[in-house]
């Protein structure tokens, strides 16, 4: 009888203990993980475009200063040709303007289905190299030479000129460029760039040495450790608010040359 009571009491205590564990799960570990991670969300197309502008407007301005191509046109082309920075050529080949290899290209290559299957496109080490090659591509070809007679403030003239010169096969190419420029007020990047001081220009060049694409599980802390840069510098260079990063977001890694 005593043995029966002891067994019964032991079983009861075990059951009560299990019930307490189920009713009161520990939350400290989950709370800690939430503190260490950064929220990641899916971007809308508008947000992707705005993020693209934030990331690459300084490069477009540098190219306008060097080669007299309106930054608004360069940005609009980059947004359109790269699929807002999310197309395969942009993500895997840093090719933001859909420039094919052509005979003179001696650099690396990436193959992609376009007008024909498996066409050869140029592969770049980073986005800045793609932007520079785009400038030279326009500047060094006779069929685009008339564009440089158009005022940099005349973005509509540039858009029509690119279409007429055969930059793209899309019959609505000019209209799409103009729409992007007007919707996102890209002409603000065309004005008075020469006033930027030398320090800002050198920092701009430094910021685009490498681009990291955010993947699942990334945090700002882990990315900063991966590249050996300070967390504060990473946040400042990418103008990140509330330490929120997004899946597939491209982050500038300020690695010194």
TrEMBL record:
<dbReference type="InterPro" id="IPR036779">
    <property type="entry name" value="LysM_dom_sf"/>
</dbReference>
<feature type="domain" description="LysM">
    <location>
        <begin position="210"/>
        <end position="253"/>
    </location>
</feature>
<keyword id="KW-0326">Glycosidase</keyword>
<protein>
    <recommendedName>
        <fullName>Peptidoglycan hydrolase</fullName>
    </recommendedName>
</protein>
<keyword id="KW-0378">Hydrolase</keyword>
<dbReference type="InterPro" id="IPR002901">
    <property type="entry name" value="MGlyc_endo_b_GlcNAc-like_dom"/>
</dbReference>
<dbReference type="InterPro" id="IPR018392">
    <property type="entry name" value="LysM"/>
</dbReference>
<dbReference type="Pfam" id="PF01832">
    <property type="entry name" value="Glucosaminidase"/>
</dbReference>
<dbReference type="GO" id="GO:0004040">
    <property type="term" value="F:amidase activity"/>
</dbReference>
<keyword id="KW-0081">Bacteriolytic enzyme</keyword>
<dbReference type="GO" id="GO:0031640">
    <property type="term" value="P:killing of cells of another organism"/>
</dbReference>
<dbReference type="InterPro" id="IPR051056">
    <property type="entry name" value="Glycosyl_Hydrolase_73"/>
</dbReference>
<dbReference type="GO" id="GO:0016798">
    <property type="term" value="F:hydrolase activity, acting on glycosyl bonds"/>
</dbReference>
<dbReference type="Pfam" id="PF01476">
    <property type="entry name" value="LysM"/>
</dbReference>
<keyword id="KW-0929">Antimicrobial</keyword>
<dbReference type="GO" id="GO:0042742">
    <property type="term" value="P:defense response to bacterium"/>
</dbReference>
